[in-house]
Specification:
alpha/beta, five-stranded parallel sheet, 5 helices, 5 strands, globular
């Protein structure tokens, strides 16, 4: 199934760092709302854990490839080979006119150089507001494995991406980020 490009309703650019389930979910929701969205991905293939950690017998790669192609068809711009903290920084994104950023890079490694204002007590976790997923820096949001010590499942990662998209939309429109919000936590089918 091929998607059709979504007309732009807004001119405020959004950058998404990381093309795993959280980043792809945020990109999908934001492009559907009419934002120009660019994903910056370190690897040459998009998909994060869906491509590199989940075996084919559980999630066939052609399914992931089809979903990614559909998101690209909607108008999301993809830039591969850009590593957060090296090829892409918050400063370079601001200089390029991005007004909101969602960091969904998976588990942070020692190699990722976070700006001091993003760093938390624990080096491998970016602290965020649990309802909005906004960091200490206004307009900068984070989700997925980058905000927790244990790995997120696909459902939790997609949920974080969707919550970030809502918060980014509210932020870019000057709305209360917490209006109608609830704490973003892992959602599973079984309690």
């Amino acid at each position: 199934v091929r998607g059709e490009a979504v007309p732009r309703k807004y001119n405020k650019k959004v950058a998404i760092i990381g093309a795993g389930p959280a980043g792809l979910a945020a990109a999908y929701d934001l492009v559907k709302l009419g934002y120009p969205v660019t994903i910056f991905e370190r690897m040459q293939e998009l998909g994060g854990m869906m491509r590199h950690r989940i075996p084919d017998r559980l999630l066939e790669k052609f399914v992931v490839a089809n979903e990614i192609a559909y998101i690209c068809d909607l108008g999301v711009d993809i830039k591969c080979g850009f590593e957060f903290g090296k090829g892409v920084t918050l400063d370079t994104l601001r200089d390029e006119g991005y007004e909101a950023v969602f960091i969904s890079v998976g588990k942070l490694s020692e190699n990722v150089s976070l700006p001091p204002e993003l760093a938390g007590k624990e080096a491998s976790v970016i602290p965020v507001d649990p309802i909005t997923l906004e960091t200490k820096i206004p307009g900068i949001f984070a989700g997925g494995d980058a905000i927790q010590t244990k790995p997120a499942g696909i459902i939790a990662a997609v949920s974080a991406g969707r919550q970030a998209a809502i918060s980014i939309h509210r932020y870019l429109n000057g709305e209360n980020l917490k209006a109608g919000g609830e704490e973003c936590e892992e959602r599973t089918w079984v309690k």
